[in-house]
Amino acid sequence: MDKKNILSVKNLKKIYSNKQDGETHALNNLNLDVKEGEIFGLLGPNGAGKTTFINILAGTVIKTAGQVNVWGFDLDKNPRQVRASVGIVPQEVNLDPFFSPRKLLELQAGLYGIKEKDRITDTILNLVSLEKQANSYARSLSGGMKRRLLMAKALVHQPPIIFLDEPTAGVDVELRQNLWKNVRLLNELGVTIILTTHYLEEAEKMCDRIAILNKGNIVALDSTKNLLNRIQTKKVTFKTDKNIDIKEDDLESLKIISKLDNEVCVSYEKSKVNIEELINLIKKNNVKIIDISTDDGDLEDVFLRLIKN
User: Fold this and answer.
1) Rounded distance, CA 224 to CA 200, Å?
2) Do 214 and 119 fall into the same domain?
3) % of residues, the chain, pLDDT over 90
4) Quick count: other Cβ atoms within 10 Å of Cβ 197?
5) Distance between CA 269 and CA 57 in Å, rounded?
6) Which end of the chain is more exposed for a tag (fewer CB within 10 A), N or C?
7) Measured between alpha carbons, how far is 143 from 66 in angstroms, rounded to an integer?
8) Angstrom distance (rounded) from CA 9 to CA 31
9) Short-list 192, 172, 174, 173, CA closest to 183
10) pLDDT recorded at residue 75
11) Are 16 and 26 in contact (CB under 8 A)?
12) Residue 1, burial from CB neighbour count under 10 angstroms (0-12, 13-18, 19+)
């Protein structure tokens, strides 16, 4: 069964104008659909328009043109319903240090007009593993706990879509893994996740599909798998029993990345060279190959190539 679109954006534009710089196109005819239940990545360098896009959905930035539909509601006709359908986890930690997690979530629920009997504060605290800290001051929480508390705040009104704006910017590896685990749990409960990130590894691990934004334009939109298949460059390291002499012009597209004693690391374009030719080239030197390791590119390669073009 085809999943339905939970978010649909058509020709979305945001133009900022001021006297000094004239017009800045933060978003340029953006078109994208996000399906219910997916983890969708919005990638791009700083200033690509990711945050502008989130702020338009949050209602803090007014779009210049275009249509936005969330969960069946049109942003122009039902702005309140759109805001109620979206939970936003901001980049910066902005929590009142003197409130406990429980109190913060209760206040947030009050802001959304959720009646006390309909609140799910404890469920949410459990979900983000803060039940033990439920009554501690927010200022005494670790950085990781604060991040999870921001996530909890976004869940109070049980929105079908959660936006995570750079969820792991500036956090350590362990915390990152922990946050990813939380995001996956949420997703398994049926929440659609849209995350902006400039960590390509994050997108690669987490997202079903990815849109790459650059200067307000979408330069790629595809499944993570297909984007990774677009990578042409392959890296190979050979360990040999003695020193070898190879040159870049021995094969088309061959680049020598490093050469140290009996180890040489090269890259080549998959479309131009097959690995057998490369092995034969090395064996020409009358050497024994002791070890070969290959490294397929990662999203970074796709990303840089798309943005260069």
Assistant:
1) 11
2) yes
3) 47
4) 22
5) 41
6) N
7) 38
8) 5
9) 192
10) 96
11) yes
12) exposed
For residues 90 and 104, membership in a common domain is answered with yes
Q: What is the pLDDT of residues 44-65, one digit of tens each?
A: 888 889 989 999 998 899 999 9
Structure tokens belonging to residue 298: 């990662």
Name the token pair of 233: 């460059």
pLDDT at 1 over 60: no
242/205 same-domain check: no
Domain end residue (candidates: 229, 256, 277)? 229
pLDDT for 233 beyond 70: yes
Q: Hey, what amino acid is at 265?
A: C
Q: Specify the number of domains making up the chain.
A: 2
Q: pLDDT band for position 116 (50/70/90)?
A: very high
* 222 shares its domain with 257: no
- Give dist(CA 118, CA 115) in Å, integer: 5
Rounded Cα distance between 3 and 113, Å, is 30
Name the burial class of residue 160, with classes exposed (0-12), middle (13-18) and buried (19+) by CB atoms within 10 angstroms of its CB. middle
Do 73 and 146 belong to one domain?
Answer: yes
CB 87 within 8 A of CB 150: no
In this prediction, residue 309 carries a pLDDT of 64
The secondary structure of the chain, three-state, reads CCCCEEEEEEEEEEEEEECCCEEEEEEEEEEEEEECCCEEEEECCCCCCHHHHHHHHHCCCCCCEEEEEECCEECCCCHHHHHHCEEEECCCCCCCCCCCHHHHHHHHHHHCCCCHHHCCHHHHHHHCCCHHHCCCCHHHCCHHHHHHHHHHHHHCCCCCEEEEECCCCCCCHHHHHHHHHHHHHHHHCCCEEEEEECCHHHHHHHCCEEEEEECCEEEEEEEHHHHHHCCCEEEEEEEECCCCCCCHHHCCCCEEEEEECCEEEEEEECCCCCHHHHHHHHHCCCCCEEEEEEEECCHHHHHHHHHHC
Q: How far is residue 207's CA from residue 223's CA, in Å, rounded to a whole number?
A: 8
User: Residue for token digits 């953006």?
Assistant: 30
